[in-house]
Amino acid sequence: MSENLFAILVHGQSGPFESLKRMLRELSVETYSVATCQEAASLIPQCKPHMVFTESTVADGTWLSVFNSAEAADAPLSVIVVGTFPDTKCYLSLMERGAFDFVAPPFEREPLSFVVRSAALDTLRRRGVLAAQTVGAS
Q1: Which of 18, 22, 31, 53 is most deeply buried (CB count within 10 A of its CB)?
Q2: What is the pTM of this model?
Q3: Nearest alpha carbon to residue 64 among 53, 56, 75
Q4: What are the residue ranges spanned by the domains of the chain?
Q5: Running along the chain, 138 residues long, what does each successive block of 10 average in pLDDT?
């Protein structure tokens, strides 16, 4: 992927997100952190991130609020929920409701790299389809 990747991180606690930030930096993903769904909602249209990593619950809402902001954005992006521990039941529920993926610490390079690469490719593919549809409608 030749495009620089950018992710917004939505979280209240710094614990697992500090290690996530370090790992994303190693994977050449630039990040910016916010503490609320409202902040994420205002940044998404401005920054057009490729992905958003969010806690399941933040100060002013849940990951669904972040997901809804992502769905309303002009530029498609992927929402990845960050848990505190691996949880298959939670993973299945999130996936059924539209999350791109679910990750939990400890963040290991290969699995996280796969999620980031898959999310970025999906986002870029959807943006390409949107661009093609826009050009075709002109």
Answers
A1: 53
A2: 0.90
A3: 56
A4: 5-137
A5: 83 87 96 96 95 93 93 94 87 90 94 96 88 60
